[in-house]
Amino acid sequence: MIQKTTNDIVNKLATKSLDLHGNKCINAGDAQNPKDYVTLGQLEDRINQLLANPVYFNALQGKIDPSQIPANMKPPSVQQVVTGSRALSTVYQNTHPTPLYAMVTIQLPTTSFPATTYGVRVLCDANASPSTTIGNYVITNSYTSTSAGNLTVYVPVTFIVLPNWYYNVQISQASPVIQCWTEWY
């Protein structure tokens, strides 16, 4: 069986420039340099090596050591509630080697009269003063009756910040309260 496999390979590949560990051809008559010549025995040895230690890409096994994974491709490993140390309309930078995942819940107190519209916007990019809008949330309180009382709206905002990028969560008006600001990196 191995001889047939070797012959099949030789017949199919002898006319092509085949790189076998630096050797370029199988037929000695085609060799311009003795180093380019590969005997059938050498080719058969190489095939036997491959058969003894096959490489299959559809059934990979084993483990990847975490040190082999680049930092910017690792999932978050730290969760930090930063509510007390963050403020709206302030620029922050992701100084971690991994992407930063953020969840900010903002409380927007609204009154029933007059109708009010609030906007929450997330800016994020590589500039120290980010200007790219990656999230824009508009909340409209359409209650116009004074008997409806006050309404409180909670706006959850989620976004991802690449390593070394800057981010800023802004609010258009009102006196918002940060209920919770959590970051994972």
Q: Report the sheet-strand fraction.
A: 25-35%
| CATH third-tier fold name of the largest domain | Jelly Rolls
CATH class of the largest domain: Mainly Beta
Q: Based on Cα principal axes, name the global outline.
A: elongated
Overall pLDDT metric: 77
The helix-and-strand class reads: alpha+beta
> Which bin fits the share of residues in helices?
10-25%
Counting structural domains, the number is 2
Biggest β-sheet: count, sense, barrel? 4 strands, antiparallel
Number of helices: 2
**Rg from C-alpha positions?**
32 Å
- Write down the secondary-structure element order: HHEEEEEEEE
Written description of the protein model:
- By secondary structure, the chain is an alpha+beta fold.
- The protein has 2 domains: 2-52, no CATH class; 76-184, Sandwich (Jelly Rolls).
- The chain has helices spanning 2-13, 40-52; strands spanning 79-81, 92-93, 100-110, 116-125, 133-141, 151-161, 166-171, 177-184.
- Strand 4 and strand 5 (133-141) form a beta hairpin.
- Helix 1 crosses helix 2.
- It is elongated, with a radius of gyration of 32 Å.
- It starts with a helix and ends with a strand.
